[in-house]
Amino acid sequence: MLYAKKYILVLLVSAFALTLNAQSRSSQKPHSYIYLSLGAGEANTIAKPIDNYEIKNKIGYNGLFGFGYEMAVRKFFFTLGVDATYSHYGQTLAEFTDSRIALDLENDRHEYQYLYSNYTEQQNMLHIGIPVMFGGLIGDYMYFGVGGKFAFGILSNYNSTAKMFTQGIYEQYPEPLKSDLTPEAVRWGFYPLADYDYKSEGRATIETSRMRVAALLEIGAQIPLKNKKNKMRIGLYAEYGLPIGASNNHTKLHLTDYSKVDIKPQTQSQQNLMDKLKYNSILDSDFLQSAYQNISVGVKMTVAFDVTIDNAPCNCIGGTSYSFF
Question: Smaller CB count within 10 Å for the chain: N or C?
Answer without folding.
Answer: C
